[in-house]
Design goal:
The structure is a single chain. The protein is built from 13 helices and 29 strands. The strands form seven sheets. Strands 4, 6, 21, 22, 23, 24 and 25 form a seven-stranded antiparallel β-sheet that branches. The protein is flat and about 110 Å long.
């Protein structure tokens, strides 16, 4: 009986052991399989990019469509962001007034095309005033480019040994006119070939005296566009003395990119607006499209002829050509607002908001096509459904640079000096509360002197700018700190800030050219901006920014008016820039 109990007990133990091995192993396999499936699921969500072209993002491995290199997995940091991405705080995003929009597609059809161009001289109406004989210019009456010349006007007197000898022949032939009319006629014809007027010849014949200086008269009317000789120069037969241009008609020449050529043809209507006359629209037609592409710019010249009898258009003026009802054979195109695009050299970049709910951004280099009104056609770089930054782009770019991310100005990390320059776009969180009004009034005097310095640079007046910089330094030195003397923080901050602005205003006095002056002016602007942010003023101050200044590092300035007047380029790019924020 006991032996039967022992057998039953052994059977139970054996059954438990077998059940453990069987069911325990099954559970282990199931868990292992589950973990493996989870790992596969994670890998299935992995993104792939190109080390040379980080804008390429694919959901699976393969080759880069641009360079053909193998794609690599996208690496992320502890926060889950890639090397190209960065995150702003929600507070900074709100302060910077960042706005975004979702990129969509616009159907093909009739649309406008805008091209930038300039007014140039009509080369078909350029004439040369030559010398028709050898000699020395004793007196030149055409002395400056832009001078008006009327046909038949005296333009020069010339001493010519050849003409002196020919006059002696003329006097002799004149005396023998009755007996040898053919000789007389031949001598007269020689003078006519030299474009000598009959009046001068008749005077020589009647007086019998040789004239030492011959007068040259203008052959055509126009505006002097080039002077090739000066008084005292020896000229030769056929050599140009000056050129004149008939400006009754001028050319409007535009640069069209390769992808825009397909929409243009000779005879097509164009509406031209000059920046000098923004409310005046001139209707014209395309008369010429250059058959040769400029290799350096990848553009062709598109030309229209403008009537200019009233003299409204001056060669060198900037104009814009608007081509309406452009038929594009492409089925659909992606377009983005012009406010979203930033330029640096040949690169065009935008910022994408890569997270729907979080302020995570990423720079993307794009290829643009035609400008269609207030939008650009996008050829490559972004796709439909991407979220793009349309307002506050420079603030986002500055933050990217300070975080060491790829940005408009660079594709790698930036130097501390550049970071200080671009710090101008960040919102200052440090300010002095309740600065005395009397002290703020003194700072307004500093601000007004600074604005005057800015205006001298807008006018590109280097000497006046240097004088005004000395005046600004004098005003900063005269700031009375009695009203803030009992506030240790105000005094400490003013000591630091005033020392910086004085040092930069002293440095700006040592430069010898306007380019270096403008570079140092960007530091002075940063000083004045921080001063106003710290203590405040009672007037509205516009902080304005130009991404092209300081060798594409970017620079800003302060203005009392909203309209952009760029002190870094003056008339060359007067309206280049944007209003970044307002201090008040």
């Amino acid at each position: 009986m006991k032996r039967n109990y022992i057998y039953v007990a052994l059977a139970l133990v054996l059954g438990v052991m077998l059940g453990f091995f069987m069911f325990g192993k099954t559970e282990s396999v199931t868990l292992e399989k589950h973990d493996h499936d989870h790992e596969v699921g994670l890998k299935s969500n992995e993104m792939w990019t190109c080390s040379m072209h980080p804008q390429i993002m694919k959901t699976e491995a393969g080759d880069c469509p641009i360079c053909g290199m193998d794609l690599i997995p996208v690496t992320t940091d502890d926060s889950g962001l890639t090397a190209q991405q960065f995150k702003l705080s929600k507070n900074a995003t709100a302060l910077a007034n960042i706005e975004t929009t979702v990129i969509g597609e616009s159907a093909h059809g009739d649309k406008g095309l805008n091209l930038s161009g300039t007014i140039t001289v009509n080369d078909d109406k350029v004439f040369v005033q030559p010398a028709h004989f050898n000699g020395r210019i004793d007196k030149l009456y055409v002395t400056s480019v832009g001078q008006k010349v009327i046909k038949g006007q005296l333009v020069a007197t010339v001493y010519s040994p050849d003409l002196i000898r020919a006059q002696q022949e003329l006097i002799t032939a004149y005396k023998m006119k009755e007996s040898q009319p053919e000789l007389y006629s031949a001598v007269r014809t020689k003078f006519k070939n030299w474009m000598i007027h009959d009046g001068q010849l008749n005077e020589i014949e009647k007086s019998g005296n040789v004239v030492n200086q011959f007068r040259i008269y203008a052959h055509v009317s126009g505006t002097v566009s080039e002077i090739s000789a000066k008084e005292g120069d020896h000229v030769m037969d056929g050599k140009a003395i000056f050129k004149v241009s008939n400006l009754s008609t001028v050319w409007a020449e535009f640069d069209a990119y390769e992808n825009q050529i397909r929409t243009l043809k000779v005879g097509q209507s164009i509406e031209i607006v000059a920046k000098a006359y923004p409310n005046k629209k001139i209707a014209s037609k395309i008369t010429f499209i250059d058959p040769i592409l400029k290799a350096s710019t990848r553009t062709v010249t598109v030309r229209a002829v403008l009537d200019n009898k009233d003299g409204l258009f001056k060669p060198g003026m900037f104009v814009e050509g608007v081509f309406s009802n452009i038929k594009d054979s492409k089925a659909e195109v992606l377009t983005i607002p012009v406010t979203s695009v930033m330029w640096t050299g040949k690169r065009s970049v935008v910022y994408l908001k890569v997270s729907l709910n979080e302020p995570v951004f990423e720079m993307r280099e794009i290829t643009l096509g035609s400008k269609l009104g207030d939008t650009y056609e996008v050829i490559d770089g972004i796709t439909q459904g991407d979220i793009i930054v349309t307002n506050g782009t420079f603030t986002v770019d500055a933050a990217a640079q300070l975080k060491g991310k790829s940005s408009m100005m660079n594709q790698n990390n930036i130097s501390n000096e550049d970071a200080n320059i671009l710090e101008s776009h960040l919102i200052s969180e440090e300010e002095v509360k309740d600065a005395p009004e009397i002290f703020q009034k003194q700072l307004e005097t500093v601000l007004l002197a600074y604005v005057k310095l800015k205006d001298e640079l807008v006018a590109s007046d280097f000497e006046s700018a240097k004088v005004q910089a000395r005046q600004l330094l004098k005003i900063v030195n005269e700031v009375d700190t009695k009203s803030i003397s009992e506030d240790a923080k105000m005094m400490s901050l003013w000591g630091t800030q005033s020392t910086k602005i004085k040092n930069n205003l002293t440095e700006i006095q040592t430069v010898n050219d306007i380019l270096s002056f403008r570079n140092t002016f960007s530091k002075v602007s940063l000083d004045v901006k921080h001063m106003i942010e710290l203590y405040g003023v009672s007037v509205k101050v516009y902080v304005q920014f130009c991404p092209m200044s300081n060798q594409n590092k970017g620079g800003y300035w302060l203005s009392l008016e909203e309209k952009i007047k760029n002190p870094y380029y003056g008339e060359v790019m007067l309206e280049c820039g944007e209003n970044d924020k307002i201090l008040e």
